[in-house]
From TrEMBL:
Gene source species: Haloarcula quadrata
Annotated protein name in UniProt: tRNA-binding protein
Pfam families to which the protein is assigned, alphabetical: tRNA_bind (PF01588)
SUPFAM superfamilies linked to this entry: Nucleic acid-binding proteins (SSF50249)
Annotated TRNA-binding domain residues: 13-114
UniProt cross-references to InterPro entries, sorted A to Z: NA-bd_OB-fold (IPR012340), tRNA-bd_dom (IPR002547), Tyrosine-tRNA_ligase_regulator (IPR051270)
Cross-referenced CDD domains: tRNA_bind_CsaA
Keywords on record: RNA-binding, tRNA-binding
GO MF annotation list: tRNA binding
Amino acid sequence: MGFTETEIDPARFLEDVEMRIGEIVDVEPFPEARKDVYKLDVAFGDETRQSAAGLTDVYDPEDLLGSQVVAVVNLGTVSIAGFESECLVTGVDSEDGVVHLTPERDVEPGTRVY
């Protein structure tokens, strides 16, 4: 494995990319999407946003409900099969599928990630 991306200014990254801890408060199947994804409602303290997340290989809906995730909240809205995805739940590829990133212990939803 080698890192292939060019280096960026850390201050610029933190200014441009806003990541926050969210709590998944609703999970629904999304059969209309071309890829196998869930419709998620993610609460960030006093605000809730929707996300289409490809976590179906690893998680059943009841496993996701109430879990905390790391999400990018300032990418704008993307329409996926008529569903407005308003944040990007981060994850990594594993042998089983995509695993979402989560803090090692619970933190207040809406907390900024640095």
